Amino acid sequence: MIKRIILAIGLSPVAVAAQVPAAASRPLPPSLPIDRVVAVIGDQALLWSDVVTAINQRRAQGMQLPPDSAGQAALAKTVLGELVDEEILVQKAKEMKLEVVDADVTSSADRQIKQARTQFASDEEYRNELRKAGLGTPEEYRKGLIEQYRRQNLQQKAFAELRKKAKPVNVTDEEVTAAYEKSRADLQKRPATVTFRQIVVAPHASPAAKAKAKARADSLLAEIRKGGDFEQIAKRESMDPGTKQLGGDLGWNRRGSGLVPEFEMVMFALRPGEVSPVIETAFGYHIIRVDRVQSAEVKARHILIAPAIDSADVAAAKVEADSVAAQWRRGVSYDTLVAKHHDPTEEKGVLQPFPRDSLPPSYGTALSGAKAGDVTPPFQLANPRGQPKFAVLQVVTLTDAGAYNEAEIRDQIRAQLSEERSIRQLLDELRKQTYVSLRM
């Protein structure tokens, strides 16, 4: 179990009760008995055909069937135990009067069917594979999927409620080491990663361009205060590409949700229906109107007028970025350079390991061949408004691709083992409260 958990970190051990129904695969050998009662949980019987179907679904998802009869029997016993846990959770959900939304269940099943159908060239091939897998006709397959998704949803709801009562279980160092050694050959390989700090230099508009933009924003504010339609003016004039067509609508926002501080401060000071004066941020000049206010949230609109940036401004930004790189290499502190040169609308870097093969191309090129501590030459970033910016990076750490060692994932293994055992205890307690008779 721990191997599966490490390979798919974040998957709860109760995921055995939430397997997604899959497309067809070849069934177990026909010489095995097809139907008989193998367990009774409360007043619900589990059939051997339920076990076979669950095994075939796992095979369709990539699980290999043991080649020997003893291995197959052990697998069947394991799957039966998982099905018992599932049924106990379903019954507990009903006892707790938890409900599912039929539309959500149906849409999930239909998405699965659509995905499964794309794997076959024709309806006839699809029907044949379903039949060979013991999943019946397409109509029966859909009905079965809907029921499984309904049960899965109930299991998840019950588990979420019960998990609140689960107590953590201590795990020894020896148990962590044993789990790592057992699973190390099958662990995912660590990707090559990088962490870095950055300073992004944006071109600055000239005083004349800023004055022109400010004057335009002032004239729009005057138009609004004379009765002009804020939404229509935003659609006509705003230079924010993300909200222009929405009439400047920013949706609901909480404090600290990512808006620049000076914008957020004004927005939260306005009353519903009130329009702000023209305010300046790193993006340009804004007019804000608050539409609604509710507990710790504000729904607002804005109009942005950004000063024009010309080629001379871009060239000056490149010179500034060159200067930043030179100063950084000479030992000027990062904090000093950030305070003076960094564009506040940009992140200051990636300080958690980030896969190198997932970096944007410009970052990948800049970091190619760099070593920890190196400061890169400035390179150009794309800007949605067409105004280039220049980034300078300092590499903090570089990690090559390879196998994880125990120290790197020790805490992760410990947490997963503790959670797995805590959940197992919870499920075992539920078994004590439920009539369970295993007959396989």
Overall mean confidence score, pLDDT: 85
Beta-strand percentage range: 15-25%
Radius of gyration: 30 Å
Largest sheet: 4 strands, antiparallel
Outline type? extended
Helix content: 40-55%
Order of helices and strands: HEEHHHHHHEEHHEHEEEHHEHEEEHE
- Quaternary structure type: single chain
Give the spatial strand order of the biggest sheet: 9-4-11-10
Low-confidence stretches: 1-33
In terms of structural class, how would the helical and strand content be classed?
A: alpha+beta
Description:
It is a single chain. By secondary structure, the chain is of the alpha+beta class. Helix content is 47%, strand content 17%. The chain contains 14 helices and 13 strands. It has a four-stranded antiparallel beta sheet with strand order 9-4-11-10. The protein has a four-stranded antiparallel beta sheet with strand order 5-8-7-6. It has a three-stranded antiparallel beta sheet with strand order 2-1-13. A hairpin with a 2-residue loop joins strand 7 and strand 8. Helix 2 packs across helix 3 (69-95), helix 4 packs across helix 6 and helix 7 crosses helix 14. The longest helix is centred in the first third of the chain and has 27 residues, at 69-95. It is extended, with a radius of gyration of 30 Å.
